[in-house]
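Posted in: Structural Biology > Protein-Ligand Complexes

Title: Requesting predicted complex, iron/sulfur cluster in pocket

I'd be grateful if someone could produce the 3D structure tokens for the following input. Sequence and ligand are given below.
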Amino acid sequence: MPETLQQFYEKIKDCQRCALGNTRTNLVFGVGNENADLMFVGEAPGYYEDLQGEPFVGAAGQLLDRLLASIGLKREQVYIGNVLKCRPPQNRDPLPEEIETCTPYLFKQIEIIKPKVVCTLGNFATRVILGKSVSMSKVHGRTFKGKGHYIFPIYHPAAALHMQTNLSALEEDFLKLKELLAKGVEPPPVEPEQMGLF
Ligand code: SF4
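-- Reply #1 --
Done. Output follows.
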């Protein structure tokens, strides 16, 4: 039997593999539908996420919920997670060793969920998932081939809270996301060499 998300969570819920394990309040594993076609990946838990143990619960989360509703989706129908499972103190940027240590957990979640589309929120998650540095202004709203899924980068909702241009771009990109999901496209095969813009 393949491993379930719950079984995987039980394995890592007390993780202390990097220093963030000492400072977190809660490990924020992720929430949503284990069989989701659409998976969102953000950067790391913030203040409220750390307190509640759930990703995207603050103002950025409310905006994400609104954007989901605009394309007829509810939070329970998708999966939402982060690259890092524990909050960096004072929301500082994740350190390279923390990324390296924690990222395999995200890839395992993707392997279990098998989404058709991995939607990366902001520069950090996009860089980790695409495996290369990117300019969000150039890649947002475009579709990339991943390993067994499509990758669809969009701006981080937090970056759109106080900037109308980013909010407009997010709203437009959600409409494109809806089209991509509605196509019922079969995800690309799992072949590492296949990464690339199309
Ligand atoms: S950030 Fe990731 S690797 Fe570090 S303690 Fe938390 S779960 Fe473990």
